[in-house]
Design brief:
- The structure holds 2 protein chains of 2 kinds.
- Chain A is α+β, with helices and mostly antiparallel strands.
- Chain A has 3 helices and 6 strands, in the order E-E-E-E-E-H-H-H-E.
- Chain A is 32% helix and 20% strand.
- A 3-stranded antiparallel β-sheet of chain A has the order 1-6-2, with helices on one face. A 3-stranded antiparallel β-sheet of chain A has the order 3-4-5.
- By secondary structure, chain B is α/β, with parallel strands linked by helices.
- The two termini of chain B are 22 Å apart.
- The chains are: A alpha+beta, B alpha/beta.
Chain lengths: 103, 364
């Protein structure tokens, strides 16, 4: 089954990090996300880094949320919305997309 | 990271800081060594590299090296004399989409001034190189090195670069007492009076062209920096923030370099400090733990009051001690204030600070 990365998003497809994007982790668990195509750099807090590392095309958004709940305490009620917004922002910046399947 | 990808150069500029310095090594590395190193840079999440030399366009395999940089998720800049940039190479550099800038050295507004220390015919070649880059949309930076022969040509240089070529800006420095300049100092380096003239002219042009001139060192940076120090002294301020210690260089906090023979060094200007060898020593280990890098990063804890050189100076609490490479080349010690950057001695030698009315808020 072939796969590719698209930038549009129905929820059923698994989010995937753009393999070109560079994650540069710092000593304090924060990180920079660098897009070599544009030269843009973004800061990620530790939760953002955790989510980024789960954008492997194998986890659904729901599964990532479940992993977040296991790892962190006091996850807010609206965490699912925040997670979707975050992923959508990454997609808009060209840093992530969705794993697709050939039909 | 600054990568000296070749020791070769088609020119021998009279003030070149590279040749005869510790960076001037016998042999270039083969392409395979650089490509292998780029993979390590990728693993270490290095985001950009600066290719320099010698003259990077002397390498016949430059295209392949750049392709290796791109494949390893990095961006790049190049420092060049501009004379070997063909239209085809300019098109290739542009096609990568990863070039942050290609810096070309221009020393005059006309062939006679530029070629004095760079060799006959090279002004025209460098200008052609710039035009090729512009044709293909490669961001062009120009560096003007101020010296005895062009210090009275700076108005015309600015007009050429900013009006005729339409560059967004250009940077300046002075010929420093390093490399070939050491044996040509009297021919090349500015006297105190010429230095005063350069400061005043560049600051005036900086204002005229709405801050499109920039400098990290040299007469423009000194003019701005020294005026602020003099203001602080006049106002009786106890200290300027971050001053009074050897804080002049933050390079080791964010940058490292590699010589053309593959030896890692803190900076191409202090190439005598050898930190290890690429593809043999672990880059991350060197970057995080090498004792020489640690020593350079801790310079900012050394007060200027520790030095006999600074004794009795009214500017001591406004001074950074400036560049460790210049300190090394002049007094033989990196952890020492640079005598070349001493405002007190400049004024004692008859130097004059530029007109304060041309000082805008710091942006150089």
């Amino acid at each position: 089954m072939e796969s590719g990365v698209e930038k549009t998003m129905p929820d059923s497809r698994n989010p995937k990090a753009n393999p070109l994007a560079v994650l540069r982790e710092e000593f304090d668990n924060w990180a920079m996300l660098f897009d070599p195509e544009s030269g843009n750099t973004f800061g990620l807090n530790p939760v953002g880094v955790f989510i980024w590392k789960h954008l492997d095309g194998l986890h659904t958004t729901e599964e990532i949320l479940k992993e977040l709940r296991k790892k962190y305490e006091n996850i807010p009620e609206k965490a699912e919305d925040h997670l979707k917004d975050f992923i959508q922002t990454l997609i808009k910046q060209g840093l992530a997309g969705h794993e697709t399947q050939k039909t | 990271m600054d990568l000296a990808i070749t020791n070769r150069c088609n020119l021998r500029c009279k003030y070149c800081s590279h040749f005869t310095s510790a960076a001037d090594v016998v042999q270039d590395l083969p392409k395979e060594e650089w490509l292998h190193f780029f993979e390590e840079l990728n693993r270490c999440a290095v985001m950009s590299v600066t290719l320099e030399g010698g003259e990077p366009f002397c390498r016949e395999d430059l295209r392949e090296l750049i392709q290796g940089i791109v494949a390893n998720r990095m961006r790049f800049s190049i420092l060049s004399n501009g004379t070997l940039i063909t239209d085809e190479m300019a098109a290739f550099v542009s096609s990568t989409g990863r070039c942050d800038g290609l810096q070309v050295s221009i020393d005059g507004s006309n062939p006679m001034t530029h070629d004095t220390f760079r060799g006959e015919g090279n002004f025209i070649r460098a200008m052609e190189g710039i035009k090729s880059l512009q044709r293909h949309g490669v961001p062009v930076d120009v560096r003007v090195t101020v010296h005895k022969q062009n210090v009275k040509d700076l108005d015309e240089v600015a007009r050429l670069l900013l009006e005729e070529l339409g560059l967004p800006g250009f940077s300046t420095n002075a010929a420093s007492y390093m490399g070939l300049c050491r044996q040509n100092a009297e021919l090349v380096q500015l006297t105190v009076e010429e230095r005063s003239l350069a400061m005043n002219t560049l600051l005036r042009l900086h204002k005229k062209y709405n801050e499109r001139l920039s400098a990290a060192a040299g007469p423009l940076a000194e003019g701005i920096g020294w005026l602020k120090m003099e203001q602080a002294r006049r106002e009786g301020r106890e200290r300027m923030s971050g001053r009074g210690y050897l804080t002049g260089c933050s390079g080791p906090m964010s940058n490292m370099a590699v010589r053309a023979d593959g030896v890692m060094v803190p900076c191409t200007q202090i190439s005598h400090i050898e930190l290890g060898r690429i593809n043999k020593d672990d880059l991350k280990e060197v970057w995080q733990n090498h004792s020489e890098l640690r020593k350079l990063r801790e310079r900012h804890n050394i007060p200027l009051s520790d030095f006999e050189f600074c004794r009795g100076c009214h500017y001591i609490n406004y001074c950074t001690g400036n560049c460790p490479a210049l300190a090394y080349t002049i007094v033989g010690e990196e952890n020492h204030p640079s005598p070349d950057a001493c405002l007190k001695r400049f004024l004692e030698a008859g130097g004059r600070l530029p007109d304060e009315k041309n000082l805008r808020l710091a942006s150089s």
